[in-house]
Amino acid sequence: MENTLPLSGLDDIDRAILARLQADGRLSNARLAEQVHLSETPCWRRLKRLESEGYIEGYQALLNPRKLGYGVVAFAQISFGNHAGDAPQRFEAAVRQIPEILSCHNTSGECDYLLQVVAPDLEAYGRFVHQVLRQLPGVTAIRSNLSLREVKRSGRLPLGDETPAP
Where do the domains of the chain lie, and which CATH numbers do they carry? Predict the structure, then answer.
């Protein structure tokens, strides 16, 4: 698939830096510079520019949810009955404060929001739906889909230098 993303502000070295950091956010500047064929000072300057321009929003470790006791991943489709007033803004503000909600997307289609939620087990997820999700402002309907098996998990964005696997 041909990459048509608007990466016009980035050159090949910038994209290489971003790709290396997506693969390993713990790379030292010295190792990163070596991998992208720059000396350390120009590499550090580029990295700081990529951070200050917002291409890099932060760094974090990728944790194993099962090892941490989260055996259930659910996708909750949230519907609103009435979009008037401040209910959507209050809903979004509340969602940002709930750690079990990993992501929230305002969507088109059959639901208004799609949430990715983790829970220790089905019973805990059921309690979460009744005690937390149903209490959020504006919510009139919730449909849940449970993940049976994770096929792919990645936070890596395509940068145009990847070759698709067969």
Answer: 12-52 (1.10.10.10), 72-146 (3.30.70.920)
